[in-house]
Amino acid sequence: MRIGALSQRTGVSVRLLRYYEEQGLLRPVRRPSGYREYREDDVRTVQNIRTLLAAGLNTQTIATLLPCMIDDDQGLAPACPEMLSDLHREQERIDKAVADLLAARSVLDVIVAATPSPAAAESVACHAVDGTASAGIDASLNNALPSPTRRR
After folding, report:
1. Which candidate, 48, 92, 49, 95, places its Cα nearest to that of 71?
2. Spatial separation of the C-alpha atoms in residues 77 and 57, rounded to whole Å
3. Residue 127 CB neighbours (<10 A)
4. For residue 25, what are the contacts with CB-CB under 8 A and spacing of at least 6?
5. C-alpha to C-alpha distances, 33 to 14, 29, 30, 36, nearest whole angstrom
6. Tens of each residue's pLDDT in the chain, 152 residues
7. Boundaries of each HTH merR-type domain copy (predicted)?
8. pTM of this prediction?
């Protein structure tokens, strides 16, 4: 299949498929006409590349890892035991990223819980318009804005 067909089947742009080739992740056969010819299993390879990229692996690591992986339609399975320490290191990195994201989510949860609802915010805005809460705002604005008679 040609690059456009692979792009359609995988949802990955032609430009990105060319990038994967430049990085050594895909190795299409070149026809005498110069066109790239992809095999059926390249569809699965592209899907695996996307999965590994989404897991946070860089293309250099993926290029090292892909030749050592067996895809038996059940997912990727390691074929090179010597990659195990690298894979454990990647797992630890991902676990840390997940923990960092969960911590950030907790902070956002606290902020969201402490933020008044839009209805409550409208109530405050209404008081400002009717003058009941505007005295403090007016004083702040007067101090923040230059007086028309004052020079800078």
Report:
1. 48
2. 16
3. 12
4. 45, 49, 59, 62, 63, 66
5. 18, 11, 8, 9
6. 999 999 999 999 999 999 999 999 999 999 999 899 999 999 999 998 998 899 888 899 899 888 877 666 655 566 677 778 888 888 898 899 999 999 999 999 999 999 988 876 666 555 555 555 444 444 444 444 444 454 44
7. 1-68
8. 0.60
Distance CA 27, CA 44 (A): 13
Cβ contacts of 42 within 8 Å, gap of 6 or more: 1, 6, 26, 28
Tell me, rounded to whole angstroms, the distance of Cα 133 from its chain centroid.
43
Q: Is 84 exposed, middle or buried (0-12, 13-18, 19+ CB in 10 A)?
A: exposed
DSSP code per residue over 86-103: HHHHHHHHHHHHHHHHHH
Q: Go through 92-107 and write b for each residue having 16 or more CB atoms within 10 A of its CB, e for each that does not.
A: eeeeeeeeeeeeeeee
Contact 30, 37 (CB under 8 A): yes
Q: What distances in angstroms separate CA 52 from CA 33, 56, 69, 100, one per listed residue?
A: 32, 7, 12, 20
Phi, psi of 36 (to 5 degrees): -80, 140
